[in-house]
From TrEMBL:
GO terms for molecular function: DNA-binding transcription factor activity. It comes from the Bacteria. InterPro entries: HTH_MarR-typ (IPR000835), MarR/SlyA-like (IPR039422), WH-like_DNA-bd_sf (IPR036388), WH_DNA-bd_sf (IPR036390). This is MarR family transcriptional regulator. Residues 26-126 form the HTH marR-type domain. Pfam families: MarR. PANTHER family: MARR-FAMILY TRANSCRIPTIONAL REGULATOR, TRANSCRIPTIONAL REGULATOR, MARR FAMILY. GO terms for biological process: response to stress.
Length: 151
């Protein structure tokens, strides 16, 4: 581990194993969104209704994977299939009021956990970390050709 990018690789691997929903928690609580639903609903919220093809392009995932994930969200009442508001043939997925509520709850839990995790950090360190994460993500998005819209 002689280069900083070796440390970044190792630390991002470790980050991937953590659940940020609970600081110090280990079990998945009832009522929490699945990770895939959290990410899909977040994208649909920012982007507006999206078709399977649009989701596939946005995430670089196979349509069959997205069909399974969106079907689970529809069954759970988090999203609904609607006709294309712009008149296209494909059906689109729109977040429901329940999906909005659950997404807000989940995001609130995660932010509360992050507040606990970084409680002893100086505010300027939290800001610097947030800025570096945004830059890191933006560069990944630029290289992959799949930018994430930010509110």
């Amino acid at each position: 581990m002689d280069r900083p990018t070796h440390r970044v690789e190792y630390e991002t691997m470790l980050l991937g194993r953590h659940s940020l929903e609970f600081a110090g928690g280990s079990a998945r609580a009832a009522g929490h969104l699945e990770r895939s639903a959290y990410i899909l609903l977040s994208r649909i919220r920012v982007e507006g209704p999206m078709s399977i093809r649009q989701l596939s392009e946005a995430f670089g995932l196979d349509p069959s994977t997205l069909n399974r994930q969106t079907s689970a969200m529809v069954r759970s009442g988090l999203a609904e299939r609607i006709p294309d508001p712009e008149g296209g043939i494909a059906r689109k997925f729109r977040i429901t009021a329940e999906g909005e509520r659950r997404l807000d709850e989940e995001r609130g839990r995660i932010v509360a956990s992050l507040d606990k995790i970084m409680a002893d950090w100086p505010p300027e360190d939290v800001q610097t970390f947030a800025d570096c994460l945004k830059r890191f993500n933006a560069d990944i998005e630029r290289l992959s050709g799949r930018p994430w819209p930010r509110p």
